[in-house]
Amino acid sequence: MISNVAQGVQSFTSNAFLVDGERTVLVDAGAGFDVVSAIRDRTDALDAVVLTHTHPDHVGNLSDAVAAFDAPVYGFDVEQQGVERELGDEETIRLGDHEYVALHTPGHKDDHLCLYAADPGILFAGDLIFQNGGFGRTDLDEGDREALIRSIDRVRERVGPDLRALHAGHGPSIENEPYSHVELAGEMARQR
């Protein structure tokens, strides 16, 4: 089961997805709300935190989650504050009951990862792809529009039309034809 523990939060935060199952994992920690209580409302233990990237809105609550649950933190770049264990491109990690492959997808930020599980058809897209063709900003440090387009194309080729759910870093999760939103993001990112 996947739930957004940041649902309804009014402060500036990313989504923070709790993936329950064999291995309970938090995908992104969000910022500016009591993530520990939000997690404890759903489970007593947290096996790991996986970061799509280390922008402040995704990691603001990280130290609280780690302190409360003593969970290791996985991310692409162990040089980034808070990241303890490297999750490299094409490496797999268990979230809930499924194996996800980490896809290095720079363009919004150099350490950006998407997480994809082919069997259930689930994609955690971080700030790469949003609903209705939205895509991550490229006007911040480490932003690069051409790299972002390549990353969206890589994800589009990897996931395919049988994608069942896309969980974005901001906005709603998409369970109705999510692949079309991936395709549209690629088109929109190419427009100047």
TrEMBL record:
SMART domains: Lactamase_B. Pfam families: Lactamase_B (PF00753). Residues 13-170 form the Metallo-beta-lactamase domain. Keywords: Hydrolase, Metal-binding, Zinc. The keyword Metal-binding applies. One of its GO terms (molecular function) is hydrolase activity. SUPFAM superfamilies: Metallo-hydrolase/oxidoreductase. The keyword Oxidoreductase does not apply. It comes from the Archaea. Its cofactor is Zn(2+). This is MBL fold metallo-hydrolase. It comes from Natronoarchaeum mannanilyticum.
